[in-house]
Amino acid sequence: MISKALSVTAGLILLLAAVACNPTEDAGSTNSGTASATGTSTATNTTTPPAATWGNAPDFSYTTFDGQQKKLSQHLGKPVVVNFWAVSCPPCKHEMPVLQAVYDKHRGDFDVLILAVDPNGDPQGYLKENGFTMPAGLDMSGFQQYGTGSIPLTLFIDRNGNKVDTKLGGMSESEFEGLVGKIL
Questions:
Q1: Domain total for the chain?
Q2: 34 lies in which domain range?
Q3: Which residues contact 72 (CB under 8 A, 6 or more apart)?
């Protein structure tokens, strides 16, 4: 009976010691202190915002025309418009001046990616030859994740990585402006 009481008492002492050495922290705070070899704590609690995470838009990798591998989620913190297109697609080529005009008008307010889904027809050369300066590259995996099989396909993703809207087919400037307005 005495040994049982001693065991319970010892357990309570260990529990109290553990609680005293590890103060409860508020959600969103970090313990940036250290413990010395003697067991004394120099802990200071600092509140930090929770880390931002990519939202519901499926993430994918793409290759820029200068050969860099990038991910869609690298745009976290800034709205992004992703346009999937091909040189062999007349509606895609028809909407390029519209995309460029809205991109120029709002330069810096949102990121834009013009991703060719077919390397045939020299998409990089086509963009350069026609004076399009939007960030561009090649992609198939992202296009397949969004699963429509048709182009042009344009995604509108907010600064938190959430897909806000999708437009299949070409757009007028006013339609593009309206959709961009949803993510700004």
A1: 2
A2: 2-47
A3: 57, 59, 60, 61, 62, 80, 82, 113, 142, 157, 161
